[in-house]
Amino acid sequence: MNKKIVTGLIASALLLIGAATAVMALPPPVPQSLGIYDAKFTSFTRNECLVCHISDAVLVPRHHNLINTKGLACLDCHTMVPDGTGGFTFADFRTCSNCHKASPHHTTAKAAAQDCKFCHGSFIDNPLDGHYIPTYGVSSITPMKNGRQVTDPSGNIVTVQGCVACHQPNAAAIDPTTNLPRAISSNADTHHGTGIGAVATATTPAGIGKCEWCHNFNNPGLEIRQCESCHGVKSLHNIQLKSATGTVTPGSELAGFGHIGNNWDCQGCHWSWYGNAATNPATAIVPSLQGQSAYTLAANKAASLTLTGASFTNVGGDSVTYNPSVTISNDTFSATLTPASFTDSEIQVNVPALLEGTYNLTVIKEGVKSNLAKLVVFPELAIKTAVMASKNTVTITGSGFGMVPPADYNSGMGVFADTTQARILSWSPTKIVASSRAFATGAEVTVKALNGSVSKIVLAVAKKTR
């Protein structure tokens, strides 16, 4: 037999054995925590929402900022209902689904316009952005939606050549944000859980979009091409988690931590592909943003912010090192910031003084961007002076006092001398005049405003000099 043919057959056999052995010894299931944790939302309980939206310390300022940015009033959210005794009490405002009747994620204008990257970043493609989708027929290396099953050298049946080779249900999955179990569903259940194309029922509204956004009913033999309308060649080949210390390097990672870290990863999708992941054409790997040292900042005041996540820096298949920048933007402002320092999993960035509002926060590397995070900026609550203007009247100056507390019900806001609430004579964002017999020079006065509370020792009014 021709020596070259024998050599080629031996090499091919070794590759097949190596690939099968790798599949046998490694997951699925694999970690699915890059970007937005890859789980299905069910009933949108408060605890589910807080997995991503952190805590009341984050959500309360963000919702209160709607008063300044959207012109809402307190009673738009804090509605009053009869308490059964002739008085009133607050209706429940802590259950998210009372206001967010359907998934808030896939019913927005951005979702309806198929601008998926606005939230998901470069982990996904936008169906209408014109990205490359192969037009040739299915070949031996084309991934299949559900893969195919083969027998490995040990006689085990394994799934290869498709999404399900790695992305499988995992009832015991641990959410890295909470370190608590949070099951990952099948690909079908997860995608159907978005509500896209859903028909209205007696209890749920209709979803946006159509089933055809995901399903190719006219050409089922090429259904993978429909998948590629969101999960295209470029986005799939730029998703990778660091498996050890150092910087993400295609071809040099442990298997099962992404799409391009190891030959096993390549063969999970393609199986018949006999290249080398180290020569992968990947450039900038999509960064994953998972945490912030602060979710709220004081307006008109520069601050330092620490971001945590993964794949903030990487070495591409072209041997170029790709480093991050940070973008902060809203409808009227946009800035790209160079980090003061960074590692694969942490960025230190200096944020300039910002006007009050809610900002979009992302990490960018050479055109690929992370999943979306939010930053709320509101006026800094501070008392500059608190002075006895008369026997029972105190004049307070400062900033961030916000709107005057409602007079027709007890909101908890106002001016207090210890536990005694004072009568408000006037109130503006920078000046308050209040009256109470409990006021005294040398005692403490507290302002409880929309964005928190702050205290100051009351001073005597300065005597006039001639």
Describe this structure in words.
The protein has 466 residues and is of the alpha+beta class. The protein folds into four domains: 3-38 and 122-279, no CATH class; 46-99, no CATH class; 288-378, Immunoglobulins (Immunoglobulin-like, Sandwich), CATH 2.60.40; 382-457, Immunoglobulins (Immunoglobulin-like, Sandwich). The chain has ten helices and 26 strands. The strands form eight sheets. Strands 8, 12, 13, 16, 17 and 18 form a six-stranded mixed beta sheet that branches. The chain has a four-stranded antiparallel beta sheet with strand order 7-9-15-14, with no helix packed on it. A hairpin with a 5-residue loop joins strand 3 and strand 4 (157-160). The longest helix is centred in the first third of the chain and has 23 residues, at 3-25. The radius of gyration is 29 Å and the shape is elongated. Residues 1-25 have low confidence and may be disordered.
